[in-house]
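Posted in: Structural Biology > Protein-Ligand Complexes

Title: Requesting predicted complex, CO-5-methoxybenzimidazolylcobamide in pocket

I'd be grateful if someone could produce the 3D structure tokens for the following input. Sequence and ligand are given below.
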Amino acid sequence: MPDYALMNQRVFEGDRESVAEMTRAALEAGRPPLEVLEDGLIAAMRVVGEDFKYNRIFVPEVLLAARAMKAGMAVLQPLLTSSEGDSSAGTIVLGTVKGDLHDIGKNLVGMMAEGAGFQIVDLGTNTSAEEFIAAVREHRADILGMSALLTTTMVYMKTVVDEMRAAGLEHVRICVGGAPISQAYADEIGAHGYAADAGSAVQLFKRLVAPSAPPA
Ligand code: B1M
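-- Reply #1 --
Done. Output follows.
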């Protein structure tokens, strides 16, 4: 069994090489990629978040931990994105909203959706309504997925929902997620769906593109 506590510690310390190595070793030992992701990497970021909240660590340490987490994710990526076979599940335009630079969760959602057969158009972070709308049109997206990690940026999701409607794109399903987002907030702003984590986001995307899904 991998020493996930030690792996968490290495993420916390921002030790990229050790995290990548321990991720590889856990996979070679036959551990499931989702277990390594959750217990080895995501669990560490929760501690980082708590320590940051209570001023026990500061932005530079959080940044180093995030880079270490990404080093582990890079090892997992080929396994998470390898498609189940159906490569035409639908097209998703994905991005973190304007003003927000957090991308770890959004990247995980993208990887797992790609693994489930969706085409992902990832617009990165700090994405404006205009950029979302242009990409949705260009790629004829079925779903627009937005991520926000800050209470100050989550409100921009409503701007995007409103501008999508004003642009005549109400047939495109809008999904939202990120630590401060809830189902109640998704309902309030008129999004079609909310997911708490990457696994449930994929289930949500599948439901929304299913032929039996109710019209928007
Ligand atoms: Co920031 N940060 N950060 N940060 N950061 C938080 C979010 C915070 C909660 C920390 C805290 O105080 N405890 C806090 C926000 C407080 C608030 O708004 N109420 C905070 C703050 C304050 C800030 C700054 C303002 C700090 C400063 O500068 N003073 C600043 C803002 C910069 C900006 O964006 N403009 C800032 C900066 C940063 C770093 C750059 C240092 C770094 C980000 C690096 C990066 O992403 N490349 C960072 C990090 C790493 C965090 C924490 C510690 C970890 C976030 C993370 O990656 N979690 C975070 C604390 C926390 O969230 N507990 C924190 C792991 C990831 C797997 O989870 O992103 O939640 P998450 O994604 C999940 C789900 O939410 C969901 O699925 C994912 C996978 O399961 N999900 C979706 C996400 N998007 C989805 C979309 C979907 C569906 C599901 O559909 C489309």
